[in-house]
Structure formats: C-alpha cells, structure tokens
Amino acid sequence: MMQKKTTYRQDVLSYVREKYGTAPDYPWMSTPDAAVLRHKDNKKWYGLIMNIRRDRLGLEGTDTVDILNVKCDPLMTGSLLMMQGILPAYHMNKKSWISVLLDGTADHEQIYSLIDMSFTMTEWKASGRKGKTGK
C-alpha cells in the first residue's frame, strides 16, 4: 500500500490569501508549480514554494517534497536551522533565507510564524516611503 504524501502547500496558500490577500504568482514556465508569494505594494517576495527532490536538499531519497523559502533575520538563522524541518535555503541567500519542509515535519504554527516574520521583514518600511502621506 502506497502512503499518501503529506504537503502543507494548500494550507500555506490559504493562510497567505486570508491573512495578507496574497495570490501566488507562477512566473516560470519551466517550473509551473513554483509559487512566488509577494507583497502587493512593493512586489518583494516574502515566500517561494517549490517542489524539490529530497537529495538536492541533503536529505535521503530521490522523491520530491514541497518546501517554502522564507526570509529570516540572519541572527536567527543558526538557531532556526537546529529545528526539525528547517534547512538552509534552496537557491536563495543562505544568510537571510531558510527552507521549511511542507511535509508535516514542521507544524502549521511554526510555518505560519515564519511566514509572518518573512512578510514583516520584506514589507515597506515607513522611512522608505518618501513622499507618501498615508492618507
């Protein structure tokens, strides 16, 4: 009997749609399942969901797994990497991005907390909006 593969991809997409109004962007024809999560105003990425072979992540096996790349405080990267389900960023700056397994290894609350941190770190800063009044 084949075991069903767990993925929190849809849970993550529902969370960012409900909390931030984000609809995923699928910019690459060569990887149509790669979903970019961006801010509406500044278009900066705060997340990237990809389906990657486990061995390319330094894990055992050649089957694929959904991962979520999120930005994090470089001072937190080391301690986050000690947690189960969190890996060095795949195809991103490893000092300020991490990859989170969406296979059930990391729980929902941990994933959502990391999304929130990434969203905050990539949003417009008040001082960076010169000429905007906020009215």
What structural keywords apply?
alpha+beta; globular; Aspartate Aminotransferase, domain 1; 135 residues
Q: Describe it for me?
A:
- With 135 residues, the protein is an alpha+beta fold.
- The protein has helices spanning 9-20, 77-80, 108-122, and strands spanning 35-38, 45-53, 64-71, 86-88, 97-101.
- The protein has one domain (9-116): Aspartate Aminotransferase, domain 1 (Alpha-Beta Complex).
- The protein contains 3 helices and 5 strands; from the N terminus they run H-E-E-E-H-E-E-H.
- Strand 1 (35-38) and strand 2 (45-53) form a beta hairpin.
- The radius of gyration is 16 Å and the shape is globular.
- The termini are far apart.
Approximate strand percentage: 15-25%
- Secondary structure: helix percent: 10-25%
For this structure, what is the CATH class? Alpha Beta
- Overall geometry comes to globular
* Beta strands, count: 5
- How many DSSP helices? 3
Termini separation comes to 60 Å
What is the mean pLDDT? 87
The strands making up the biggest β-sheet line up spatially as: 1-2-3-5-4
Biggest sheet character: 5 strands, antiparallel
Query: What's the CATH architecture name?
Result: Alpha-Beta Complex
SSE order, one letter for each helix or strand: HEEEHEEH
Q: In the residues, how many domains can be counted?
A: 1
Structural class: alpha+beta
Using the coordinates shown, work out and report the CATH topology. Aspartate Aminotransferase, domain 1
